[in-house]
Write a structure and sequence with these properties.
heterodimer, A: alpha/beta, Rossmann fold, 2 domains, four-stranded parallel β-sheet, 39% helix, 17% strand, B: alpha+beta, Ubiquitin-like (UB roll), five-stranded mixed β-sheet, 7 strands, globular, disordered C terminus
Chain lengths: 309, 93
């Protein structure tokens, strides 16, 4: 039966075995291809869930405008949901966000508000929070603190993996808001009590950390690090090596965070004699084609000024 | 000695250094040694005897909060990385 809109095509993503990347045949490695969602990333799940949860609770009515600090996948997914449902969308992003991202968001109907480039990620969050407080027409889903983010991964990502496999020993996902790891992690822990929930976390370059004070630090309210079993730093160079390995061994073109996830999954798989490891690959590689690292002699240097997921 | 990497955020309190050598068999001991060498760092790294909320500490690339916290063992040749907690989720491209 045909879908009534792209929103009906969110989720139910395929799971594929990575036979050529597994360290040994007795360890089965699988990838959940979230880039197959209609706007191209795992964020379709949470954009749809956050908006529909707010509608159901009466917190979001026609005529309101969505507001979110993002220049990444969440903005693109919210733009898709906003278009279909008839809401406006404003994205707050650092002034140095790539023109490619801006163009895509604008084509999908989003308005852009810039935050100071030197304040990076946290600056965009602070500015969006202020705007939402000052202007009541805005409704801010705010993925960092929205339980519907976690719920979308509990019901969707985690539920689907639990249905797709009889056994899961390790699940690896990228750490951003923490939504995937908290939601899918707790669903899989119910199905497979001994599962190891592992986070792949980007090691930021010095320019990204900047000179901001620790008091500007931010831990997403939905993230409870105590619910993670492993949390591993991945360098930009390791992430890109993971992206290349996925392409060369499995012909899967995935984004930077997926490369990091595969790096961690491979490392943890090597600790197993046998078992099942699942990687959640958040997006495809298409949005990174113009990135500077593909041909760079020094990958770390080419990537150190940006946050890649 | 263990190498402790200092993020840009904390370097002003460590005489501008990117790395500091410190002694100890656990993360707690190593960081105490760092704080003894650079007293201004103590109040920034520690909060009520534990690691401050907005500081992440890694041994061998793994967060000590998912290991044994300050009791996490540190081998002599390993690197301890300090990082400020930052928002992720694809904002800042």
């Amino acid at each position: 039966m045909p879908a009534s809109s792209v929103l009906d095509l969110v989720g139910n993503t395929p799971l594929v075995e990575l036979q050529r990347l597994s360290p040994r045949p007795s360890v089965r490695l699988y990838a959940k291809l979230e880039g197959q969602n209609p706007s191209g990333s795992i964020k379709d799940r949470i954009a749809k869930a956050m908006v529909e949860t707010a509608e159901a609770r009466g917190e979001l009515q026609p005529g309101r405008e969505l507001l979110e600090p993002t220049s990444g996948n969440t903005g693109i997914s919210l733009a898709m949901v906003a278009r279909i449902k008839g809401y406006g969308l404003t994205c707050v992003m650092p002034a140095n966000a790539t023109p490619e991202r801006r163009r895509l968001l604008e084509l999908m109907g989003a308005s852009i508000v810039e935050s100071p480039a030197d304040e990076g990620t946290n600056g965009a969050v602070q500015k969006a929070l202020r705007m939402a407080q000052e202007e009541p027409r805005y409704f801010m889903p705010f993925q960092y603190a929205n339980e519907a983010n976690v719920r979308a991964h509990y019901d969707g990502t985690g539920g689907e993996i639990a249905d797709q496999l009889d056994r899961v020993d390790i699940v690896v996902a990228g750490l951003g808001t923490g939504g995937t790891l908290m939601g899918a992690g707790s669903r899989l822990r119910e199905a497979f009590p001994d599962v190891v929930v592992a986070a792949a976390e980007p090691l930021p370059g010095d320019p990204v950390i900047g000179l901001r004070s620790l008091e500007d630090g931010y831990v997403p309210p939905i993230l409870d690090v105590g619910k993670l079993d492993r949390k591993l730093l991945v360098t930009n160079a390791e992430s890109v090596a993971g992206v290349r390995a996925l392409l060369e061994r499995e012909a899967i073109f995935a984004g930077v965070s997926s490369g990091a996830v595969v790096h961690v999954a491979h490392k943890l798989a090597e600790e197993l004699d046998e078992g099942v490891v699942v990687c959640v690959l958040a997006d495809g590689g298409w949005k990174y084609l113009s990135a500077p690292f593909w041909a760079a002699e020094d990958v770390e240097e080419a990537m150190e000024t940006s946050v890649w997921w | 000695m263990t190498t402790v990497r200092i993020p840009p955020t904390l370097r002003p309190d460590a005489e501008g250094r990117r790395e500091v050598a410190a002694a100890g068999t656990t993360v707690g001991e190593v960081l105490q040694d760092v704080a003894d060498q650079f007293p201004a760092l103590r109040a920034r790294i520690f909060e009520n005897g534990n690691i401050a909320r907005f500081v992440n500490v890694y041994v061998g690339g793994e967060d000590i909060r998912t290991q044994d916290g300050l009791a996490t063992p540190v081998a002599g040749d390993s690197t301890v990385i300090l990082l400020p907690a930052m928002a992720g989720g694809g904002i800042a491209r």
